[in-house]
């Protein structure tokens, strides 16, 4: 497969540079996946917009990271699994729950488990939830509004998961201990 560039400010297309500066301000660095996204200004700009919506919504950071990690595993994106393993742990998700998600299972925590199951089911069924899928999510204490908001997180993670699978960026040193081979 053709190698995609891991851009810096100097090599990125001019229209991608503001987004890269934004990413660096948020993360204190430019993650390699974002650096590969910069090849397409449309992609990196869209990613920033949906990233803001995901992190400005109704879910807590542990809940968001649960969906993102579940999606990365379900979509088989090694780079995103490593990143979201770190971010989920930093957000306070129990290490055993992170391990469960990395293994394709749902967390023991009831709420996180319901979110993880919903996210996995959305991907596996390509959004075609049946009544039982919806009822299980609602029975865990979530609303219909939050079910729809979960779709936004799944959409955002699908972007990063697909980009990671297509571009295969190198794993940063800080993520090496969380490498995942599926």
Automatic annotation (TrEMBL):
Domain of life according to the entry: Bacteria
Official protein name in the record: Carboxymuconolactone decarboxylase family protein
Organism field: Bradyrhizobium jicamae
